[in-house]
Amino acid sequence: MRQYIFAVLCATTFLFVGDNVASQEILTAPRYFEQVAANYAGIVDYIANVRVTTEAEDMEGELFYRAPNLIRINFTRPSDQVLVSNGEVFMLHVPRYNVTLQQELRARGTETLANLASAQGLSLLRRNYSIGYLDSPAPQPLSEDSDLMVTKLRLNWRTTGEGFRQLFLSVDEDLVIRRVEGITVNYDRVTFNFDNVQFNQNIPATRFDYDPPSASNRFHNFLFEGDS
Asked: What is the pLDDT, as a whole number, of residue 18?
């Protein structure tokens, strides 16, 4: 469960890209990554369809993001599952188990969600991962059966303290990240696909308010202890 939650927190914060690219000339993979990251700060909010594939199951839903650190996924598969963070508290409601997992995000070690949804967060990735092209700078199909052409990057951890050994980013010609694949510490693979991305939709802050069903079993600070 921890690996799944961490994967969601990381992958859903990568898709904050803008439209202005300083240069179309890409010399190195780190420079290409910087051009993508430099645009993230200009995005106020976005909506996207997300498909999550893990070793155990496939999940689908609608993702909402609002700067600087508000995120919500309303899942359609599994039905009625909700992941939401208002910047202070993270909650995951899992109807199949009738549980709501809740975690305070004020404690040390909760920077994943709050900081990666920003240009500063991607700078942390640049510092903690080595960045290269998967094969070459040349665009290639997203997958064998896809017509979408993307540039693929591979990020390898520099230290064992990171949540993923490797990350693979697939970026389309508009600098929109369309797929993120992560290899966890335990060598599990988690894949996020993003479609129908709509930027700057004036999403209200109230979209990230969530009251779980009163009958669900609530587990507080299930990852680590919150601030006292």
From this structure: 39
Query: Smallest Cα–Cα separation from 166: which of 197, 199, 189?
Result: 189
* Paired tokens of 151: 């540039």
- Alpha-carbon distance 51 to 36, whole Å? 22
Looking at the predicted structure, is the pLDDT value of residue 11 above 90?
Answer: no
12 and 63 Cβ atoms separated by less than 8 Å:
yes
Residue 185 in tokens: 């510490």
Q: Is the dihedral of CA 99, 104, 110, 112 positive or negative?
A: positive
How many other C-beta atoms lie within 10 A of the C-beta of residue 202? 7
Q: Tens digits of per-residue pLDDT, 99-134?
A: 999 988 764 444 443 334 345 566 777 888 999 999
Tens of pLDDT, residue by residue over 142-177, are: 999 999 999 999 999 998 877 789 989 999 998 888
227 is a domain residue: no
Domain that holds residue 153: 2-220
Q: Give the span between the Cα atoms of 17 and 33, in whole angstroms.
A: 11
- For residue 107, what is the domain's CATH number? 2.50.20.10
Domain count, the chain: 1
Residue 69, in any domain of the structure: yes
Query: Could you tell me if residue 117 is inside a domain?
Result: yes
